[in-house]
Amino acid sequence: MSGEEIIDITRAMLWTTFITAMPVLTVALVVGLAIGLFQALTSVQELTLTFVPKLAAVAITFWITMGFMTDAVVTLWRDRLIPLIAGG
């Protein structure tokens, strides 16, 4: 396996990781900012107020995008990694 192939596979794996993590991280960021704004405006500094809604939003987002994430990872394995392993 050449260095170019290793870099290409690494790039594909990092891109797949980025694509699969982005929906969950984006929702966590948006919900965190909204809760932080709410806490700043109301002066409510309850720790569970930040944790529970963010956890629920991340869990719901993960549940909704689970099919997309699975497709992306399976496609990477089926199209890039398994042929490389079988051919090598």
UniProtKB/TrEMBL annotation:
<keyword id="KW-1003">Cell membrane</keyword>
<feature type="transmembrane region" description="Helical">
    <location>
        <begin position="12"/>
        <end position="35"/>
    </location>
</feature>
<feature type="transmembrane region" description="Helical">
    <location>
        <begin position="55"/>
        <end position="77"/>
    </location>
</feature>
<keyword id="KW-0966">Cell projection</keyword>
<keyword id="KW-0282">Flagellum</keyword>
<comment type="similarity">
    <text>Belongs to the FliQ/MopD/SpaQ family.</text>
</comment>
<protein>
    <submittedName>
        <fullName>Flagellar biosynthetic protein FliQ</fullName>
    </submittedName>
</protein>
<keyword id="KW-1133">Transmembrane helix</keyword>
<dbReference type="GO" id="GO:0009306">
    <property type="term" value="P:protein secretion"/>
</dbReference>
<dbReference type="InterPro" id="IPR002191">
    <property type="entry name" value="Bac_export_3"/>
</dbReference>
<keyword id="KW-0812">Transmembrane</keyword>
<keyword id="KW-0969">Cilium</keyword>
<keyword id="KW-0472">Membrane</keyword>
<dbReference type="Pfam" id="PF01313">
    <property type="entry name" value="Bac_export_3"/>
</dbReference>
<dbReference type="GO" id="GO:0005886">
    <property type="term" value="C:plasma membrane"/>
</dbReference>
